[in-house]
Amino acid sequence: MTPLLEVDRVSAGYGAVQALAEVSLHVMPGEIVTLIGANGAGKSTLLMTICGDPKPRMGRILLGGEDITGEATHLTMRRGLAQSPEGRRIFPRMSVYENLLMGAEALVKGDPKPQLEQVFTLFPRLKERLAQRGGTLSGGEQQMLAIGRALMSKPKLLLLDEPSLGLAPLVVRQIFGAIRALNAETGLTVLLVEQNANQALRLAHRGYVLVNGRITMEGEGLALLARPEIRDAYLGGGHG
Questions:
Q1: Nearest residue to 51 via CA among 32, 74, 73, 29
Q2: With CB atoms counted within 10 Å of each terminal CB, which end of the chain scores lower, N or C?
Q3: Is the pTM value of this prediction over 0.85?
Q4: SS (H, E, C) the chain
Q5: What CATH class has 1-80+156-240?
Q6: What is the pLDDT of residues 162-187, one digit of tens each?
């Protein structure tokens, strides 16, 4: 079976700073794969590089077997890639409904109503807040909105960047529960970047560890979670 996403020896950075050094990973259709690592390891840079900005300095990125290396972000989105970025980045002056419709812009054709219903099933709170401005939502509701907005494009692959960041434990469980349900019920493929290694590795089928821009370890999620070096490095208080 062809990987849905393949990152092949990709190096990338900003100016003189190299953030990624020959990173290779793959995500199979229907998998949840997590990438864990400390702050500054290069996790978010990898997701941004997959989306086309920054462009790789070397290596290649394949989506569904097709080379998308350095492709413009809006074109990659139309291929079935969607991202819920770190920090949520919703449109604070727009209503919840307007934010969600912005996510549907990548739909080449089709009615967004089925996607709206999927989002409301996952996150009933958003339906209750439909006319409310995004900037007035709680942190957890904004994260739900960011994920919901990404789902509106009916993606084949969902990139999630630190969805638990700054949220209370109860809300984190709700968010991760929604991701698990999405994967189990619809087969949605997910690449998850997280500092919360405990939650992420329990959720994921497989995981990779990124240290200073390099992949240092990979394996099944629970198998990685059981490794003493992972527990020592990343599970002190649940975050690395």
A1: 73
A2: N
A3: yes
A4: CCCCEEEEEEEEEECCEEEEEEEEEEECCCCEEEEECCCCCCHHHHHHHHCCCCCCCEEEEEECCEECCCCCHHHHHHCCEEEECCCCCCCCCCEHHHHHHHHHHHCCCCCCHHHHHHHHHHCHHHHHCCCCEHHHCCHHHHHHHHHHHHHCCCCCEEEEECCCCCCCHHHHHHHHHHHHHHHHHHCCEEEEEECCHHHHHHHCCEEEEEECCEEEEEEEHHHHHHCHHHHHHHCHHHCC
A5: alpha beta
A6: 999 888 899 999 999 999 999 999 99
